[in-house]
Design brief:
This protein is 31% helix and 24% strand. With 482 residues, it is an alpha/beta fold. The chain folds into 3 domains: 133 residues, FAD/NAD(P)-binding domain; 119 residues, 3-Layer(bba) Sandwich (FAD/NAD(P)-binding domain); 118 residues, 2-Layer Sandwich (Enolase-like, domain 1), CATH 3.30.390.30. Its cofactor is FAD.
Length: 482
Amino acid sequence: MKIKQLDVAVIGGGTAGLAAYRAAKEATDSVAIIEGGPFGTTCARVGCMPSKLLIAAAENAHQYDKSAAFGVHLGKPEINGKEVMKRVRDERDRFVGFVLESVDGIPESDKIQGYAKFIDSNTLQVGDDLQIQAKRIVIATGSRPSWPAPWNDLGDRLVVNDDVFNWDDLPESVAVFGPGVIGLELGQALHRLGVKVLMFGVGGQVGPLTDPDVMAYAYKTFADEFYLDADAKVSTVRREGDKVYIQYTDKQGVEQEALVDYLVAATGRRPNVDKIGLDQLDIQLDEKGVPLADKYTMQTSIANIFIAGDSSNQIPLLHEAADQGKIAGHNAGVFPDIRAGLRRTPIAAVFSDPQIAMIGESYREIEKRLGSCGCFTTGEVSFENQGRSRVMLINKGLLKVYGENGTGRFLGAEMTGPNAEHLAHLLAWAHQSKMTVAQMLDMPFYHPVIEEGVRTALRDLNSKLHLGPEMTQMCMECGPGC
């Protein structure tokens, strides 16, 4: 048995693991990164980048649908599924190549190939012939898709987002289970590329939204475009030849049957912590078996063990994984002299059309924290009559903003609407700067821009906080007198 001694061992070579390795390396040269599969990130391989490539193709195909309203008649596009998927794969591989170039810059002596399991809080077993004794350990093992076990009987007719981007051609039909972030993005994109899409959910949830008004608006908008039942009653799912047979009760209460080429499981992801030997440790876990960690230090209940990225019990997004990895790696490197790291304002986006975004505290979090005392209020704007949005015929959406009574502090926002990814950044910067709603209204707004919709919502909120003038009714942000 070969034994390797280290100051810091990082388990996982994705976004969080690479960030942790680099941060720890600044404090000590005795660092190694352990990876059982390919080095690289979920985002580049099967996540945010290939999905955006598919969405970009779908948006391009969708232009003809609304062009006639401008008096521009483009005609229905001819969609070549093989060419669409070839570009998705080629560009995906290019993005992965950039990540691998950075991995190539890591000394070979610092890269260990194999799956690691804890023997104790300072010892890892990698494969059959290597034992690593590390003073500090960072868990950055990522996550994987999850789905109900009976679906395994579907064989290759069951696909997850990891599989979709390896298709050589577009199928004729799919059933998407899970109208969350991944399901909405993939389902709508496939629909706009000519694939027949049925989308099923549970409990009425749409995307990551928690504000009931915004969620209801999003549900109606997507359901008007393709079949979406966010609280579906599906009685049968089974394989029939090269198809998937589905029996369900539709939204009118009528029994329906469908045969589709694939079932796309977008039913969530689970942290990869169930096979790393946590049972050998006296470590505090949450109800899902994930190690609990301090969000500012990423330290677990075992002082020398840190956790970061999708394997943690925190927000599973790339920028969050990078921040968590940096904090965990730095603290593992300088241990025991650990420090609280910078945690940024939460920001999330769904690249659907209209887009979805959430900033700061969610409606559910604020309601739980302040609802009983009536200590917050909301402002809103519909984008249906917002000037620039209507000019561009992208006038679908609802923005809700939340403020604290008494202080006037901006607490957060949820929205579906045009350019939500960009509006979300403005709101996130304001939230991280701890601005009040009045201070946000003092910022410049050009005319005519979609951002004026943000100002309308903030004005509505400010008036309800009793910290500003009453709203001008029916204001479409169409002139300086509004």
